[in-house]
Amino acid sequence: MFGADLPEAAPVALRVNDRLEAASLAEVIQALRHHPLVAWAERKNFGMAKMGGRFARFGWPGASDRIGQLIDGRLLAVEVKGPKGKLQADQAEFLSLVRRFGGVAFNASACPYVY
């Protein structure tokens, strides 16, 4: 009958690193929100939306996943990667820029990197 000659579908490979990075994102934001030196910390969104027939881009390439402020007023920028994730050049440049002007910026994959 129909489909008798069709091959079976190949199994879909799970993207394990995406799940690990999502877990890292959640863990790091919780650690930042409870850290005694952090005044506030939030996730930074990046995306596009159609407005008036045109696409508008929000955010900027390389900006960190987590942005916040320390209780002493300094900017906080945290790029979160899964255990095997690597910084892209524009992400490393952003972290360097924040540090150069007195902010605190680092890469974290889990809670211990925050403390």
What does this structure look like?
Strands 1-4-5-6 form a four-stranded mixed sheet, with helices on both faces. It is globular. The mean pLDDT is 83. The chain has 115 residues and is α+β, with helices and mostly antiparallel strands. It has a domain at 39-114: 3-Layer(aba) Sandwich (Trna Endonuclease, Chain: A, domain 1), CATH 3.40.1350. It is 30% helix and 28% strand.
Considering the chains and any ligands shown, give keywords for the structure.
single chain, 115 residues, alpha+beta, Trna Endonuclease, Chain: A, domain 1, four-stranded mixed β-sheet, two-stranded antiparallel sheet, globular
Compact summary:
The protein has helices at residues 16-34, 89-100, 111-114, and strands spanning 38-43, 47-51, 54-58, 66-70, 75-80, 104-108. The longest helix has 19 residues, at 16-34. The chain starts with 15 loop residues before the first helix and ends with a helix.
